[in-house]
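target protein:
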Amino acid sequence: MDIMDFYGDHFDTELVRYRLKKRRSGHKRNGGSATTADLSKALAVTDNLNLEPKLISSLDAWGYVFHVNTQQIAIGAPINFSNNGPLTGIVHQPGGSNIEVTAGGIYNITFGVYTAQNNPQDWAVVINGQVRSRFNSAGQTINASTLLSLNANDGITIRNVNTLPSPATLRSGPFTTAYVLVLKVDG
C-alpha cells in the first residue's frame, strides 16, 4: 500500500493524504482507500476545473518579523527588524522598522524585546507615529500584546519610550532579540 501526500505551500502543510491500494481482480470494493485510477480521475477533474490547492486560514492577514543579534535603540527610536517570517497582508522590508497592514480591521500585535543590561524596560506600539499602547517592566525582557483597530496602510513600529540606560542594547548572538507578531483577528 502506498501513501500519496499533497502539499499546499512552502511550509509543507499537508493538504490531503491519499492511501493508494491496488485492487485485486474479482475483489468487490466496499469503500475505503482510493485506487491509483480513482486518484487519477479525481486529479483530472480538478485540473479541468483549473483549481489550485490553497492554504485555508481563518485569518485574513498575519505576519512575523524579527531581529537577530544586537542593535542599539535610543530613547524615541524604533527597533529595526532584520528578518521576515511568513507575511500575508502584512508588508515589511528587512532592516526597516515599519510594518504595514494592507487591510483595515482589528489586529492583535504581540512583541518581545530582549536587552543585554537595561532596567527598566519602557516600550510602545506606535501606529503612524502615534503611541497607541505603552508597556514597561523590570528586567531585561519585555513581552507584550495589544488589540488595536487599524486602517488599511497603517504603519506599526515598536519604539523605545524610556528604557534606561539609553540606548537600549539588544542581546548579542545568532538568535532572535526582538520580534513582532501581527494577526488580523476580525473577519
Q: What stands out?
A: The chain has two domains: 2-48, 62-184. Helices lie at 36-48.
